[in-house]
Amino acid sequence: MGKIGTYTWTGASGRKYEMDAYTLDTKFIEGVEGNYVFAKPGNNEGHIDAVYIGEGKLKDRIEFRINDGCVLRKGADRVCIRVEGNEQIRKSIEDDLLEANTCAYVPIGCNVKVGG
């Protein structure tokens, strides 16, 4: 179906990251890099919760996570993306968002916390 809206995620730093939200059947362009957040409806109306937060080549990473199945089992119904070509910036955004959205970690979400 495609784009369904825009959502702003806030990192632990207080920085805000505006991301476009898409249905899970959206086909992304090969080679485009950025950050992505699989999300599901939250408990509060209009709020969504992170299921998985990542970065990299969007088409490859998003398709891999959908095929892996965890994000679907955890209730994800959309993926939010932010295009960013700089790897250092992407990793910084990923870390900032994970620190603020701990629901993305196992057992609630699908991210595995490094170091335990």
What does this protein structure show overall?
With 116 residues, the protein is α+β, with helices and mostly antiparallel strands. Helix content is 25%, strand content 34%. The chain contains three helices and five strands, in the order E-E-E-E-H-H-E-H. The chain has helices at 58-68, 70-73, 87-100; strands at 3-10, 16-22, 33-41, 48-57, 78-83. Strands 1-2-5-3-4 form a five-stranded antiparallel beta sheet. Strand 3 (33-41) and strand 4 form a beta hairpin. It is globular, with a radius of gyration of 13 Å.
Helix content: 25-40%
Rg over CA atoms, rounded to whole Å, is: 13 Å
Question: What is the strand arrangement across the widest sheet?
Answer: 1-2-5-3-4
Mean pLDDT over all positions: 94
Topology:
Layout (H helix, E strand, L loop, with lengths): L2 E8 L5 E7 L10 E9 L6 E10 H11 L1 H4 L4 E6 L3 H14 L16
Antiparallel strand pairs: 1-2, 2-5, 3-4, 3-5
Give the structure's gist in a few sentences.
The protein has 116 residues and is of the alpha+beta class. It contains three helices and five strands.
Descriptive keywords:
34% strand; 116 residues; five-stranded antiparallel β-sheet; alpha+beta; globular; single chain; 3 helices
